[in-house]
Write a structure and sequence with these properties.
The protein is an alpha+beta fold. Helices cover 31% and strands 21% of the residues. This is Actin-related protein ARP4.
Length: 419
């Protein structure tokens, strides 16, 4: 057992899109950065660094090597954190430590934790703090053991607790029983929690998450001739006061994965700024004359976005819409097995004991970044009211009330932890 008011427990939540780290009991995480990293084969590092000296970026070779989050792992050099990923490097690939939400590369996780503890983020000594690691509902025992081994043997943490994401979200809302709808970057998971435990047999998952919606938007805009130039691929030159010209830059050694990552950053911002869930199921003819919304791209180009503002979010509710988006044809292979969000909720609750279904319907907690989309809560509540039993009292709770999630848990609860 580990306790004491003078000690702050550290919470780390490694998601498919973002890693969050901070102190238990606070309103929000102290550090939020991408969960993907840049990776360069060690044989290419020196050549890449020399080339970047002349790339016109103004960042010296010495500064690059001293960026926190620069970690050499075996034959790779890893670059962790928003600052490191924001700097283009020759031959740098963007890789994720996760596959289907489960850790597949522990070297990358090690580097991510190093970065979280560094002066760029928390500036702590992990030996002095008990640790709480958030994990997906589907995490295997082997993964839990590996996380504990790394945390104890390398970081010398005095205590460790691994908790399911859904349970932490439920507790943060003050509930021991709820239905947690986690709309994350890589997937969407619906998990019923009863008396503080996830009911594994009733967990429902979908590959449609925030990144899938981002790709749908990006492909749709590309089909309309809108090119999203990555920020590294141009510079804006002032030709006269107040007037700028875009000058293209050529970096032939830029990897396709880094180019795609840079384009996704732009498309994700467009999605967050202009998209909203439609009040009713999307219909092409009904939205054909919808007013457009303007968005200025980093290169100064202003684009107009119309029906896509509503069509892309509705893919969460009706996955078959993705078929009509040019470039998303590969989704057709798995589409028949993918359910919309309301159906996932209904199916999950129906797999639970009949005695707790009423309580689950009235305690639907929305979590994850995609859940912040405008009108998503209202649309989900509306669809569920139409499909749920008449006796059910459907209530969806806004995720922003519980954005702190595991950080919002009372400190005295988190501190009483052990393996």
């Amino acid at each position: 057992m580990y306790g004491g008011d003078e000690v702050s427990a550290i919470v780390i939540d490694l998601g498919s899109h973002t890693c969050k780290a901070g102190y238990a009991g606070e309103d929000a995480p102290k550090a939020v950065f991408p969960s993907v990293v840049g990776a360069i084969d060690q044989m290419d590092v020196d050549e890449s660094d020399d080339a970047e000296k002349n790339s016109g970026s103004g960042e010296s070779k010495n500064n690059i090597r001293n960026v926190d989050g620069d970690k050499a792992k075996g034959k790779r050099k890893l670059y962790v954190g928003s600052q490191s990923l924001g700097y283009r490097r020759d031959f740098m690939e963007v890789v994720s430590p996760l596959k289907d939400g489960i850790v597949a590369d522990w070297d990358i996780v090690d580097s991510i934790w190093d970065h979280a503890f560094s002066r760029e983020c928390l500036l702590i000594d992990p030996k002095e703090h008990p640790m709480l690691l958030a994990e997906p509902s589907s995490n295997a025992q082997q993964q839990r053991e590996r996380a504990a081994e790394l945390m104890f043997e390398k970081y010398k943490a005095p205590a460790l607790f691994l908790a399911k994401n859904a349970v932490l979200t439920s507790f943060a809302s003050g509930r021991a029983t709820s239905l947690v709808v986690d709309c994350g970057g890589g997937s969407t998971t619906v998990a019923p929690v009863h008396d503080g435990y996830v009911l594994q047999k009733a967990v429902a998952t979908s590959p449609i998450g925030g990144e899938f919606l981002t790709d749908c938007l990006m492909k749709s805009l590309e089909s309309k001739g809108i090119a999203m130039k990555p920020r590294y691929s141009f510079r804006r030159k002032e030709i006269r006061p107040g007037e700028f010209q875009t000058v293209d830059l050529d970096f032939p050694n830029t990897s396709e994965s880094y180019k795609l990552y840079s384009q996704r950053v732009i498309a994700s911002d467009i999605k967050e700024c202009v998209c909203r869930a439609p009040d009713t199921p999307y219909d092409e003819s009904a939205y054909s004359n919808i007013p457009t919304t303007s968005y200025e791209l980093p290169d100064g180009q202003t684009i107009e976005i119309g029906a896509d503002r509503f069509k892309i979010p509705d893919v969460l509710f009706n996955p078959s819409l993705a078929h009509s988006i040019p470039g998303m044809e590969s989704f057709a292979e798995i589409a028949p097995s993918v359910r919309g969000l309301p159906q996932m909720v209904i199916d999950s609750i129906n797999k639970c004991d009949v005695d707790i279904r009423r309580e689950l319907f009235s305690s639907i907690l929305l979590a994850g970044g995609t859940a912040s989309m405008q009108q998503l809560k209202e649309r989900l509540e509306k669809d569920l009211l139409e499909e749920s039993p008449q006796a059910a009292r459907v209530k969806c709770l806004d995720w922003r009330q519980y954005i702190g999630f595991s950080w919002f848990l009372p400190t005295d609860v988190v501190l009483q932890i052990r393996v």
